[in-house]
Every structure is written in C-alpha cells, then in structure tokens.
Specification:
By secondary structure, this protein is of the alpha/beta class. 25% of the residues lie in helices and 18% in strands. The longest helix has 10 residues, at 106-115.
Length: 278
C-alpha cells in the first residue's frame, strides 16, 4: 500500500490508460499509436498481441502485467510496477485490450490514480464487441431485428460469487435486444440455459467469435439450444465473444480485399480533384 502523503510529495509521471483495440494493429487509434511508439515505459496485458507490441520502441521498458480479463478478479486495480514508475516521475502507457472503460478496469484504475494524485489520461480503443461485429458482418443493432444492445460479462468478482449477488446472468440483462458477452466461453452452456429459462426462445440465434479481427479469427453460428455443443466441437480458443439475438441472422460477411494506399503519381497524398459545378 502506497502512503498518500508520500505519493503527493513525490515527482509524478503520467499514466496513460490506452485501449489497444480488438487485436488488429491497424485498428489502433492515432493517439494510441503515437503513445506506443514514443513511450519510455509500457505495461501491457496478456491480451495485447505481438503485432501491437512490435510498435513499442526497443529502448522502452516493457512490463508484462500478465492479466487477462476475468482471470484476476481480486488483484489490485493498478499494477505495483506501474505506480512505482509513475511515482518516480516516469510516464507510463498502461496498454489494455479493447477499450479501457469496457470491462478493462479503467474506472477502478482511474479512481486509484486520482486518489494518489497521479495525473492520468484515458485513450479509448475499439472494444472487442465492435471489432467482432465489423469483422463478422453482424450488426449489433438493426431496424428490423434489434433496437438495443447490451454488453455484459459472464464473470463475477469472487465476492459476488461467494455471496450469490448478481450471480444469475438472466437477472442482469434485458430479455430482449442484442446481448454481447465478454469472457463468456467457459460458462457458455450455463449462460445459454439461463437465458432460455429467463424467457429467450431456444431457437434464438447465437454466435461465438474467437480471436476477432485477427488472421486466425473463427466464428461459430448456431442457436441457444445448440451453441454450446457447436463451440465444444469446434474447440474454439479464448479470447472469444458471444453474440446473442436476431441480429446474428442479419450477418453479411465482409468482402476480404486488399486496399491499396491512397497515393498520387508521386507517391505522396492523392491530389484533391476540383469539381466544377454548373
């Protein structure tokens, strides 16, 4: 535990809570890319892939936090090494899969940094749900299928599991609309059963997306009655997202094509064409 008086009197660096996006390095924000390529210290989760870490300067210190979402529910909000560097006056990029504020503990870490008077900034990233929707062609909302979407986690904190508080997923999510479950692969069978018991039809479409946006992405489509068996047969690896709802039937698989850079004849930016009116 770091004493608050010491923390306030020490020179402090900034901590950047940066979203690494769903996996594909081309889906990083410009802000995230700039911070990664110039950072002196980068602390990263296990979910951050080697393609993104390759952008980090070879002179930067890399700290493998080793935390996957849901695997360390009672761990401290901020890794001690991150606080140590920041309180020593170093800027630190705290790199997280997806978006820091969507099941990335960004809120908890921001609160702890604020309490210790450590300046911080949140840099949003494309959440895994949005990446999976784009890469599979499943619209999370659709005028003819769903007017709402709910993001939920299938994992609870250990305290909630012991007390039973909020343990029923069906009690935590709406009975209608699209449902996107993070960290839901290991409890998929129980989740599907609970949703059916809560009123969703057995034939409700369901999809599991593994390694969304990456070259080894895999997709299994079924319904609530059969999705657990289908995923088990496919032996999908984590991380994976579960999408439940009628929008799954509206899937339009994106055309895989290589897009050439927009360049002019001289290799620079393409010239702007003036359109003559009238």
């Amino acid at each position: 535990m770091i004493d608050g008086t010491i923390a306030r009197s020490a020179p402090r660096g900034r901590v950047f809570l940066v979203g690494a996006g769903p996996g594909d390095p081309e889906l990083l924000t410009l802000r995230a890319h700039r911070l990664l390529t110039t950072a002196r210290v980068v602390a990263y989760d296990e979910l951050v892939g080697p393609e993104i870490l390759a952008l980090v300067s070879p002179d930067a210190e890399r700290i493998a936090v080793g935390r996957r979402r849901g695997t360390c529910p009672d761990a401290p909000s901020i890794h001690p090494a991150v606080l140590e560097r920041a309180l020593a006056g170093l800027d630190v990029v705290r790199l997280k899969g997806g978006d820091p504020m969507i099941f990335g503990r960004g809120g908890e870490e921001a609160a702890e940094l604020a309490a210790l008077h450590v300046p911080f900034e949140v840099v949003p990233g494309i959440s895994a749900a949005l990446g999976a929707a784009a890469s599979t062609g499943i619209p999370l909302t659709h005028r003819d299928a769903a007017s709402s979407v709910t993001f939920a986690t299938a994992h609870l904190r250990a305290q909630d599991e012991r007390t039973g508080e909020g343990s029923s997923l069906a009690n935590r999510v709406p009975a209608e609309g699209t449902l996107v479950l993070y960290m839901g692969l290991s409890t998929l069978r129980e989740t599907a059963r609970g949703l059916v018991e809560a009123g969703r039809p057995l034939e409700t479409p369901a999809c599991v997306v593994s390694h969304a946006t990456l070259p080894d992405q895999r997709v299994v489509v079924a319904d609530l009655a059969t999705i657990a068996d289908a995923v088990e047969r496919a032996a999908l690896p984590t991380p994976a997202l579960v999408i439940v709802g009628e929008v799954v039937t509206r899937r339009v698989v994106p055309t895989q094509q290589q897009v050439a850079p927009l360049t002019g004849t001289g290799g620079g930016p393409a010239p702007v064409r003036k359109v003559q009116r009238g």
